[in-house]
Amino acid sequence: MSDSILKVEGIEKSFGDVQVLKGISFTLEKGEVLALIGSSGSGKTTLLRCLNFLETPDKGTITVDGKLLIDGEEHKNMSDKEIRENRLNFGLVFQSFNLFPQYSVLKNVTLAPDLAVKEEIKHMKLTGAQAKQYKEKRYAENMANALMLLERVGLADKKDAYPCQLSGGQSQRVAIARALAMTPKILCFDEPTSALDPELTGEVLKVIRGLKSKDTTMVVVTHEMEFARSVADKVIYMSNGVIEEEGRPKDVFLHPQSPNLQAFLQKAKEK
Amino acid sequence: MLFTEVTLDLLVNFAQNGLIFLLTLLGAIPLGLVITFGSMSRFAPLKYITKTFVWIIRGTPLVLQLFVVMYVPGLVFNAPMSSRLTAVLIAFIINYAAYFSEIYRGGIESIPKGQYEAGQVLGMTKGQIFSRIVLFQVIKRTVPPMGNEIITLVKDTSLARVIAYSEIIMAAERYTAKGLIWPLFYTGVFFLVFVGALTLLFGYIERKLDYYKG
Q1: I need a labelling partner for B212 at 20 to 30 A (CA). Which of A207, A248, B82, B158 fits?
Q2: Average pLDDT over residues A245-269
């Protein structure tokens, strides 16, 4: 299992007295799609937020491509710069999109890569004409890449629109393009369709389905069981802060072992 | 003609109100931001000192603050305030910065946490998140309350006369003392015109920022 792209070991996290994650361990291979399922409060979102450095695990380690990124006990000693570099291994698409309202769709996608170029220039100590030339070249690349990504999510014609002019489904597709622009090794989705009207979930799920390839590794927290069954290579069912069951979708969905998962799937079917 | 003469005299004195207004804004807008950072600090002592300071400034009359700045240095420290304008500006800038800081704080706290998190997961620095994402949204949200406060400032400038700094109302009172009453009421026109212009300006800025919602 040495070629696992993601290795999570013994993640624990408490908020005050409430232990939300009680030792989570799993691995994911490159190009796999992992669906995290479970009822509200089971800890799925907290786990995802730990991967993206939005929460600090109390214990446990997260390793990507053989590189140890987070060690719960050492985390406090990390510099801001290290955290920023490490978290870029992951991308995150939020339930509520969180697009930047004051920027056009295109600028939403190019902003972070452009700012990264600025940091690079500072780091390389470029100045004057050299810096300007480098910046222009890289900005042009970012722009071309952004347009390509918007094309991929089917929103090239909306590049000059503002987020307030988009539907929920379109907003979420822009958010996906924005996350992809930073070329994360692992793209995470936090209930990407939960804030959408039912008739809009399809277009977003279709885009996520379309991203599946041997190079794109994804972790998706979802309540869409049909989507999880058809797209995921691996399903993890969480309950009360532990992984209660994991495996191939057909095993998990057709032959659930634990009574909790059986009840959960039954309820999901009734919805 | 008396009317022209009075108008010109009042106009010249109204320039002092304009000067106080302009310099107060120049000082209070950035100082307010500094106070905001203090009152939002995670370092508890700084936070509580700042909050107490804002409470004192907002909790006492501006007139009283003018007296304190003008006379306390001389009475207590034996270092009399050399210029009345300096005293006026110190009192006004501190007073208005305290109010502005609360408007900014409200604006900053109204920005959803998700905006910060979106910037974080895209690898932005704290400075970039503030300057490129949050700041503009805060400005949009704080323009209406700031407009309100700034209009109040226009009229407050005439309080400078309590420490004998000559401005339009004080000039008008010189006519009153000579038995000519109408110039005092006439000063209202100057304020109305100035505030009218500001109202148009703020309306324009709000429309400019209205290209997006949220």
Answers
A1: A207
A2: 90
| Beta carbons of A265 and A253 less than 8 angstroms apart | yes
pLDDT at position A1 over 80: no
| Residues A60-78 pLDDT 10s | 999 999 888 888 877 667 8
Q: What are phi and psi of A190, to 5 degrees?
A: -105, 95
**A119 lies within 8 A of chain B by CB:** yes
This prediction has a pTM of 0.86
Identity (one letter) of the amino acid at A41?
G
**Three-class secondary structure of residue A16 per DSSP:** coil
Residue A123 and residue B7: Cα distance in Å, rounded?
61
Interchain CB distance below 8 Å, B118 and A98: yes
- Structural Rg of chain A based on CA atoms: 19
Residue B88 in contact with residue B63, Cβ under 8 Å?
Answer: no
The CA angle B167-B172-B173, to the nearest 5 degrees, is 100
pLDDT band of B139, cuts 50, 70, 90: very high
List Cβ neighbours of A175 (8 Å cut-off, separation of 6 or more): A93, A94, A97, A98, A99
Which residues of chain B are within 8 Å of residue A90 when distances are taken between CB atoms? 121
Average pLDDT over residues A28-46: 92
Nearest chain B residue to A117 by CA distance is: B124
Whether A9 and A60 have beta carbons less than 8 Å apart is answered as: yes
